[in-house]
Design brief:
Elements: H1 9-33, E1 38-44, H2 48-71, H3 75-96, E2 100-107, E3 110-117, H4 121-145, H5 150-162, E4 170-176, E5 180-186, E6 191-198, E7 201-208, H6 214-224, E8 226-233
Parallel strand pairs: 5-8
Antiparallel strand pairs: 1-2, 2-3, 3-4, 5-6, 6-7
Helix pairs in contact: 2-3, 4-5
Length: about 240
C-alpha cells in the first residue's frame, strides 16, 4: 500500500490504466481527423498450415459417414458424408481461415488500418439460412421430446439464433506516433512490425505491404515518425518485440 495517499498498488495501476485509456481515446480521435498522406491495400492470405489443418479437421465428420456408408453398403450415408465433407471444407476455409483484405492509411499522427475477411456473400447467406434451419430444428426437438431436451437443444437454438445475423464486419485499428520507433522487417516478404514506449504508453503494430514497395514505405514512414532502428529478421516469429 502507498502510505502517502493510502492507495493500494492495484488501485494505482487501475488509475494509470484509466488515464492511458483516456489518452488513447483522444489520440485516436485526433488521428481519425488527420489528413492522409499515403495509403495502400493488400490481400493477406491465411497461413498454408492453418488452411491444411482446417481442411483435414473438416473431413473427419464427413469421413465417418462415408466409412459407415461403405461398411453398410448404404448409398445414403455415403452421399451424406460427401455432402458434409464438402460443406465443412467451405465452412472452415471461409469462416475459420479466410484471407484478410487490409487497407492502410498513413497520416502525420499515425496509421489507421481496416481489416476485413474476404468471405463471399454467398457464404454469409448459406450460414444465415443454416442457422435459421438449426434454430427451428432445435426448437422442434424441444417440443417433441419435452422440457428435458431444453438444456441441450435450447442452448443450441440460442447459439444458432446468434448466427442468423451473420454478416461481414470491418475492424478498424489505430497506431499513434508517440515516440521513436523500432522496426523489424522480413526483407522481400512484405511484412514489418513496429514498437515504441513513450510516456509509459506502449504502441505496436504489424503491417503488410507489397514486397516490391518496401523502400517506398520506409521512406513514407520516416516522414512522420522517428525511426530509431530497423532490424532485419528471417521469420514471422521474430517480428514480435
Amino acid at each position: 500500500m502507498n502510505k502517502e495517499n493510502g492507495m493500494t498498488e492495484q488501485e494505482i495501476n487501475e488509475l494509470r490504466w484509466q488515464e492511458e485509456r483516456q489518452l488513447r481515446t483522444i489520440l485516436d480521435e485526433n488521428l481519425s481527423q488527420a489528413p492522409v498522406s499515403y495509403e495502400w491495400k493488400v490481400l493477406v492470405p491465411e497461413e498454408i498450415i492453418m488452411k491444411i489443418t482446417n481442411v483435414i479437421i473438416s473431413l473427419i465428420p464427413g469421413g465417418l459417414f462415408v466409412y459407415a456408408g461403405l461398411s453398410r453398403d448404404s448409398v445414403g450415408l455415403t452421399i451424406t458424408g460427401v455432402i458434409f465433407s464438402t460443406l465443412f471444407i467451405f465452412i472452415t476455409r471461409y469462416l475459420f481461415s479466410p484471407d484478410k483484405d487490409m487497407h492502410y492509411k498513413l497520416t502525420p499522427l499515425g496509421i489507421i488500418y481496416t481489416e476485413k475477411d474476404t468471405i463471399p456473400d454467398v457464404a454469409y447467406t448459406i450460414m444465415r439460412g443454416f442457422a435459421w434451419f438449426s434454430a427451428v430444428a432445435c426448437l422442434a426437438t424441444v417440443v417433441y421430446v419435452g422440457p428435458l431436451a431444453f438444456v441441450g437443444a435450447g442452448g443450441m437454438a440460442l447459439l444458432a439464433v446468434k448466427f442468423t445475423g451473420f454478416k461481414a464486419v470491418t475492424q478498424t485499428h489505430h497506431i499513434n506516433f508517440i515516440g521513436s520507433y523500432k522496426i523489424k522487417i522480413i526483407q522481400n516478404k512484405g511484412v514489418l512490425s513496429l514498437w515504441t514506449k513513450s510516456h509509459g504508453i506502449h504502441a505496436s503494430g504489424r503491417f503488410y505491404f507489397e514486397a516490391a514497395k518496401e523502400d517506398e514505405l520506409i521512406k513514407e514512414l520516416s516522414k512522420h515518425m522517428e525511426i530509431k532502428e530497423i532490424i532485419q529478421v528471417k521469420s514471422m516469429r521474430e517480428l514480435d518485440f
